[in-house]
Specification:
Layout (H helix, E strand, L loop, with lengths): L40 H15 L2 H5 L7 E5 L6 E5 L5 E5 L2 H27 L3 H5 L4 H10 L1 H10 L3 H20 L8 H6 L12 H14 L4 H11 L4 H7 L40 E2 L20 H9 L7 E7 L10 E9 L6 E8 L9 E7 L7 E4 L2 E7 L5 E9 L2 E4 L2 E4 L1 E7 L7 E7 L11 H8 L15 E8 L7 H9 L4 H10 L5 E7 L4 E4 L5 E3 L8 E2 L7 E4 L7 E3 L5 E4 L21 H16 L4 H8 L5 H9 L8 H8 L13 H18 L12 H12 L17 H20 L8 H4 L2 E3 L10 H7 L1 E4 L24 E3 L1 E6 L7 E4 L16 H5 L4 E2 L4 H7 L2 E7 L2
Helix pairs in contact: 3-7, 5-12, 6-9, 10-13, 14-15, 18-20, 19-22, 20-22
Length: 892
């Protein structure tokens, strides 16, 4: 039994959630209900009072805090392991063997984040109703449709022996922690859960639980399925010309591509030794039976308000929403002060508490062929290894490739059959039982086509497409019988080898090894940048990239015509690669990877390249002024220039409206540096002006509203229209606006009035950071609707600078009625290949997932300022920074 170290005291957190943050929002449908039944009203009040009292007891708060010092005997270890932690709680784990290393990582992840891990495995398995009751059944149905847990089980069976040993050891480490820590001893959230689901007990962790989380990250970075749906819905009511105008092609003539020239003689990828990389299996789909959901006797929890099941899944997992993307770049030693490369990376993901990342360092006591790991960086709680970071030889970073790896197919279904090439073929079907806390199990019927799961009936958007589909291309005639349904084909719905690629990256020593690891990295599709201590830099497109038949996947395709099927995957050796380019740098920011001459279609829906263009400009400007340093890389990450704000400032330079308040607001733009600084009044007005302009131009009295979509895309749409003053989009009869000038004046006045209402009559006192604030919200109990419970887990609001399609990419949703930050640079790192101890890092929250722990949000304030802390790597630096040392030793 472990002896708990109680020397770590709870830190008093000054940040309380903003109780008014949700006021004024459009009402939205709740996924479930928190203790919402009238008969439980009194119980609810008692629960809240009891919880508040319990939360004031220091022991209750601290009982799940991890032991950081001393010695713990655990069953399953082969030898002694050291866990050294610095003042931020970041662990360095030192072990003799890979098995002990990953065992200890599992133990440490469970110490810091087990509730997060347990919640996520229920999420990925479509088992949320087991935790929270019947309110979560719709989300479970959708996630079971995707079949991640079954796919993860297939991938686990295909693992090579070395990778399997690592995942099994990790699971054993998690379970060793659980042997001594159950319920509230594992995390305070179990005390809250026990008030409404007292029968819940924690299950042992498995390797499949770890692998399934990689599927969830693929969902987070799934790219363009929502764009495809938006385009399909718009195409029903608007001309092809209007659709093309609002979904323009990538501006190749003005913004950069990642790989202007593919390196023909790059070092070849080593032959991967992991199994399963090329396997393909179509996932099953599901639909509920006619049976009504069980009536739950237990209260059920709802932590988010949404408009659709897809949005629910996105809110829980992280959606491919506004601002999800990333920046990464690498510069060669020819441009740096040290003569060695610098690599920078900041992935943009949905804001969460705790952050999706967990920082750690995995070190074999003696690095050798038998134990090859000395790797540090960012990983996921619940997954062994390091996802992004560096080892003693190489460094790497990721950004979302944004390639089109998802396609919607319109199917023609008759009963238990569907049409394929003029004949009816059987649907693949099966049934599953979904367990429900406090209620009876619910039976589900599961269906699929050759393309993948049928998703209409589970999501409003997909169901709407099925009701009246707009189908791309010259397909075979629609079969006369049956009804339409929509299926989803997605590369992540096939077993792959991403689990093995993580370990391969962690032990890679050169570009050949790096490419071999990239070859195994099936999903999510990412841009991988590279640097090594020999002075080389590089880039590789990894992942599974489909080769399409007829059609380009930009609109739903006819499932009954096999000419539109995927024809396979792009051969790895034909994917874009760069090695030591002449420019001396490689920049990826979700922009186009290659030019129009590339022989394969990767996508029609790149990010439009504004961030990439700005990063290239900043690198070239800084390099012209002198050799680049780590500080220069950090300054680029912190850049907040708002390209569209700069454009609008120029447009409005000669416009006055005659209204004193509006003209005072416009005057803010006259000497603005176009930086979305948190304390900037001009930035506040520019962003509100942009939001009002898009709404006034594109929200019409039509049967189908125009989807505003991504801000990057709308930057290009509006920029083009600003040079076309006679275009019909400048006239909106619903607003009594006729022409460009009237539209610009109306939008300026609307923006001034809106900000006056939000922040007062003095324009000089407006602040972008307050308007654009971030409240860190727990993924589970943080949106409970019960203020005392939310106070326990949430932190903020924090004023935030930056913006969407800004290098410092704190995203907000255009047209949503709010400017709150929803996506963030989830972490930032700069790696110095000349001196690895000179590298720096930071992430959104902190190492700990325990509310009130000193490391719960101790990195947030430096994150706000885009500052980073030293990143110790050498043994000497790690031990000098260590504030606690825990020794794990074999039991007995």
């Amino acid at each position: 039994m472990a002896t708990r170290d109680t020397t770590t005291a709870a830190a008093e957190d000054p940040h309380a959630p903003d109780a008014t943050a949700d006021e004024g929002r459009k009402p939205r449908r709740r996924v479930g209900r928190i203790i919402g039944m009238t008969v439980y009203g009194l119980v609810s009040a008692v629960v809240v009072v009891a919880l508040i009292v319990a939360a004031t007891v220091v022991f209750t708060i601290q009982r799940s805090f991890p032991q950081l010092s001393g010695t713990v005997e655990v069953t399953g270890l082969g030898g002694e392991v050291e866990v050294l932690r610095d003042e931020l709680g970041i662990p360095t784990i030192v072990a003799e063997t890979p098995e002990d290393l990953f065992f200890a990582q599992g133990y440490v992840h469970a110490q810091d984040r087990f509730w997060e891990m347990d919640f996520r495995r229920h999420l990925t398995a479509g088992r949320l109703a087991e935790l929270f009751g019947e309110s979560q059944l719709p989300t479970d149905l959708f996630l079971r449709t995707l079949g991640w847990h079954e796919l993860a089980a297939q991938e686990e069976q295909a693992l090579d022996d070395e990778t399997r040993a690592g995942y099994d050891a990790y699971a054993a480490g998690v379970n060793a922690f659980l042997d001594d820590n159950d319920g509230a001893d594992a995390s305070f959230e179990y005390a809250v859960l026990g008030l409404q689901n007292p029968d819940y007990s924690i299950e042992p962790w498995t390797a499949v639980d770890s692998i399934a989380w990689l599927k969830a990250m693929a969902w987070d970075l799934r790219s363009n399925v929502e764009v495809e749906a938006d385009r399909a819905l718009m195409a029903r009511d608007h001309s092809p010309e209007e659709v093309a105008q609002l979904f323009p092609e990538y501006p190749f003539e003005r913004n950069p591509v990642i790989v202007p020239l593919i390196t023909a003689d790059a070092p070849a990828a080593a032959e991967p030794d992991a199994a399963g990389a090329g396997s393909t299996t179509t996932a099953s789909a599901q639909q509920p039976t006619d049976r009504e959901p069980a009536s739950s006797a237990a209260a059920s929890i709802d932590w988010v308000e949404v408009e659709s099941v897809v949005e629910a899944a996105s809110a829980l997992l992280g959606g491919a929403g506004e601002g999800v993307g990333s920046n990464s770049w690498v510069v060669s030693g020819a441009l740096t002060e040290t003569g060695m490369p610098l690599l920078a990376n900041d992935p943009h993901l949905g804001a969460s508490l705790p952050s999706v990342w967990h920082q750690s360092h995995l070190r074999c006591r003696t690095v050798s062929e038998a134990c090859p790991y000395d790797v540090t960086g960012f990983g996921f709680s619940g997954v062994p290894g390091i996802i992004i970071g560096h080892n003693r030889d190489i460094a790497w970073g990721f950004t979302n490739l944004t390639s089109d790896v998802t396609d919607l197919y319109v199917e023609r279904v008759e009963g238990d059959e569907y049409w394929r090439d003029g004949a009816l073929v059987p649907l693949e079907t099966r049934t599953e039982m979904v367990e429900v806390a406090g209620g009876d199990p619910v039976e589900l019927e599961i269906r699929s086509t050759a393309h993948g799961p049928i998703v209409s009936g589970l999501s409003g958007e997909f169901t709407e497409i099925a009701e009246d589909p707009a189908i791309t291309g010259d397909a075979a005639p629609t079969p006369a019988g049956g009804e339409y349904a929509v299926s989803l084909q997605w590369t992540a719905l096939q077993p792959g080898a991403t689990a093995a690629s993580i370990f391969a990256l962690d032990r890679a020593t050169d570009f050949t090894d790096f490419r071999a690891a990239a070859k195994l990295f099936d999903v999510p599709a990412q841009n991988l940048v590279y640097a090594d201590r020999e002075g080389n830099i590089g880039y590789q497109t990894p992942g599974r990239q489909p080769v399409r038949g007829t059609g380009d996947g930009s609109l739903p395709q006819p499932g009954w015509d096999s000419a539109y099927d995927w024809q396979g995957m792009i051969p790895f050796d034909e994917l874009p690669v760069v090695y030591n380019p002449e420019e001396g740098y490689i920049v990826t920011a979700n922009n186009a990877v290659v030019g129009e001459g590339y022989p394969y279609l990767l996508t029609n829906d790149w990010d439009y390249g504004w961030r990439a263009a700005r990063i290239v400009d900043l690198i070239e400007s800084a390099a012209a002024a002198g050799p680049l340093t780590v500080d220069d890389m950090r300054d680029i990450q912190a850049d907040r220039q708002f390209w569209m704000g700069k454009r609008l400032a120029g447009v409005y330079a000669d416009i006055t409206t005659g209204d004193a308040q509006t003209d005072a607001a416009l005057a803010l733009l006259s000497d603005w540096d176009a930086q979305n600084s948190a304390d900037s009044a001009a930035a506040a007005y520019a962003n509100v002006l942009w939001d009002e302009l898009v709404a006034n131009m594109f929200v019409r009295e039509r049967d189908t509203a125009i989807p505003a979509g991504s801000q990057a895309r709308m930057f290009l749409v509006v920029d083009t229209l600003l040079d076309e003053p006679s275009d019909p989009w400048w006239t909106n009869t619903g607003l009594d606006v006729d022409g460009q000038r009237e539209m610009l004046e109306r939008s300026a006045a609307d923006a001034a009035a809106r900000l006056t209402e939000l922040q007062g009559e003095d324009p000089t006192r407006w602040q972008w950071g307050t308007l654009h604030a971030l409240t860190l919200t727990s993924d589970t109990f943080g949106s409970s609707g019960i203020a005392p419970i939310e106070w326990l887990f949430n932190r903020g609001p924090y004023p935030v600078g930056g913006g969407t399609s800004v290098v410092d990419a704190s995203g907000w949703v255009l047209g949503s009625g709010s400017f709150e930050t929803v996506t963030v640079p989830s972490m930032r790192m700069v790696i110095d290949l000349a001196d690895l101890d000179g590298s720096r890092w930071n992430h959104l929250t902190g190492t700990s997932g325990h509310a009130f722990h000193p490391n719960y949000t101790d990195q947030t304030e430096t994150w706000q300022r885009a500052e980073m802390t030293p990143w110790a790597f050498s043994d000497e630096a790690v031990r000098e920074a260590a504030t606690h040392t825990l020794r794990l030793v074999p039991a007995g």
